[in-house]
Amino acid sequence: MSTYQNRRNLSIAQELSPLHANCESCFGLCCTALPYAASSDFAKDKAAGIPCSNLQSDYRCCVHTELREIGYRGCTVYDCFGAGQQVSQNTFEGKDWRQFPEAKDAMFSVFPIMWQLHELLWYLTQALHLPAASTIQHELESAYEKTKQMIAQPRDALLQVDIGSHRASVNTWLMRVSELVREEANKQYKHVKGRRTAFGRGADLIGAKLKDANLQGANLRGAYLIATNLRGADLSMADLIGADCRDADVRGANLSECLFLTQFQLNAAKGDCHTKIPAYLVRPSHWIS
Question: At what angle do helices 163-188 and 137-151 cross, to 10 degrees?
Fold first, then answer.
């Protein structure tokens, strides 16, 4: 059975399931491999390759239930797209870096590459489930399979991956998907009441007041939505790839059909029980009930 035939038998939630972080199957890679700086998201600095002081011997966090209260909000926002368990259990065959310290440097170097590959796979999976993108099905399938093949490579080969070049190649097709989907959305919603505002890529909307805005089919790629008021806004088919959603107020907003929305972005925003989200994402526990 072909990949396309398999996909038709799976819901997008089923296909994206392996791309959700499973910390129980990871060797604390986000807590070790990645750096962070003292800020509103982190209480202090940490260099790449140095374990967080809160990481226990079993690779669990000793302050997990109080991260936001003690200044580690960034940890509650982060999502690795399942790269952690992939590197830990598959690339390194379940050999953790404490028991096999000779693998530590390679493991910590592979993780950021795997993270980006899994992120691309997340976007491509979404794209392949969009009817409006059917005209470029072959190209998307090709990019999807190439990404999967890269993910399955041995550690040494992964370290040689030109991730920048691959991201650029995949992004060409993701941008085309965005155009096709938003063109369809603009036709579908052209008779809907409410003025729809056009934004360019990377729009600076920090703190903007867009409450109840009609943003159906909007181009919000790479937009700065930091502390933006999006309460009650309709973002159906709006492209949010790369958008910075830190503290964006999405209470009561419709995000259920957003294009390329991630768990990372949801976690960074401020929502509530009335925020409509896609079935394949999880409502953040820190949102207002």
Answer: 140
